[in-house]
Amino acid sequence: MVFLHLFVVNRSGGLIHHRHLSNKAPKIGTNEWLRIGSTFHSLHAIAAEASPVRLPGGKNSNDGIEEMVTGGMVLRSFQTRTGIKFVLTAEPQTPDLGQVLKEIYVLYTECVLKDPFYELEMPIRSELFVHAVDALVERVQNAVSISPTKHR
Amino acid sequence: MASKSWSPTYLANQLWAKQPKANAELFALTYGALVAELVRDLETNDKIQAELDRMGHSMGIRSVEEFLAKASLEPQSQTAVTCSQFKDTSDVLKMALKMFLGITTEAGVQEDSHFSIQFAENPLSLFVELPPDRSDLEYSQLLCGYVRGMLEMLQFDVTVTMAQSVLRGDEVNEMRVDLNQVLQAGAGDDYQEE
């Protein structure tokens, strides 16, 4: 199990961060990433509208795509209450993606939002954030490889 | 017992315990220096308060994310509070104020479109005595902007004012939150109907 990519989409559908998390990840150019980010944003919105289940008031922040599974990868998306989407792709069977995304959200609030020079909705260029995500990914992968039987 | 450990107060204390702490005096003095600078630069109380409100707003729109992120990591967060009406928001707001300021707040008025929260201690005004010519200044206006910014990110358009303030001679500090409207996110009404 390996994490492949992380990307972050702001609330208007713009890609604000993308990076690969391992060498196994396919190489994708920045333009393609922008397209993937906004396409995913649209699909997410369509999925929410298409949902047959409506909560009272017609709004449900948990609507929309949460997970997509294909033969070669699994994509997990986490949308915050404020509309930012954190999306992680990984090899199939990778456990705990939802938890990792929540922790990445915390790292975003710690490393990015507290930078007084960061403007909301703009691309994230924080080295602190990159390093923190690297450390988190490494920690999770080590934890899983120590107990390989647990999630099989 | 079980129900108690799942309460919003418990969750708020958990969040507060995990926050890094700053020296309260340094915090109060820094804020004091900021307000004093504004008093020197700007003439009227209205302008000073508008500036403090703006600063609080830009802090609020950022730190609401921190609260949501950290609260959602707590295992109790799913069951602690469910907001079905606007006034339930006050319970969550009380948690956020505990987490960031360490203050314990009491619910005041609870109506459909407005609520208020009361707190005796205000870490911003630790050493403050308002001078006679500034006796109407709302020293803690930053907090109002802060709450306004937080709620704005959650699609609530609100007006926040200090209804009572210890500095101005009241018994307790009371912050009043009025709901103006709930902003719509995502697709507009055109797309909502068949």
TrEMBL record, chain A:
GO terms for cellular component: endoplasmic reticulum; Golgi apparatus; TRAPP complex. It comes from the Eukaryota. Pfam families: Sybindin. It is found in: Endoplasmic reticulum; Golgi apparatus, cis-Golgi network; Golgi apparatus. Keywords: Endoplasmic reticulum, ER-Golgi transport, Golgi apparatus, Transport. SMART domains: Sybindin (SM01399). Transmembrane segments: none annotated. Its main location: endoplasmic reticulum. One of its GO terms (biological process) is endoplasmic reticulum to Golgi vesicle-mediated transport. Part of the multisubunit transport protein particle (TRAPP) complex. Belongs to the TRAPP small subunits family. TRAPPC4 subfamily. PANTHER family: TRAFFICKING PROTEIN PARTICLE COMPLEX SUBUNIT, TRAFFICKING PROTEIN PARTICLE COMPLEX SUBUNIT 4. This is Trafficking protein particle complex subunit. It comes from Phaeodactylum tricornutum (strain CCAP 1055/1).
Automatic annotation (TrEMBL), chain B:
Keywords: Endoplasmic reticulum, ER-Golgi transport, Golgi apparatus, Transport. One of its GO terms (biological process) is Golgi vesicle transport. The keyword Transport applies. InterPro entries: Bet3 (IPR016721), NO_sig/Golgi_transp_ligand-bd (IPR024096), TRAPP_component (IPR007194). The keyword Endoplasmic reticulum applies. It is found in: Endoplasmic reticulum; Golgi apparatus, cis-Golgi network. GO terms for cellular component: endoplasmic reticulum; Golgi apparatus; TRAPP complex. Homodimer. May play a role in vesicular transport from endoplasmic reticulum to Golgi. Belongs to the TRAPP small subunits family. BET3 subfamily. This is Trafficking protein particle complex subunit. It comes from Phaeodactylum tricornutum (strain CCAP 1055/1). The lineage of its organism: Eukaryota, Sar, Stramenopiles, Ochrophyta, Bacillariophyta.
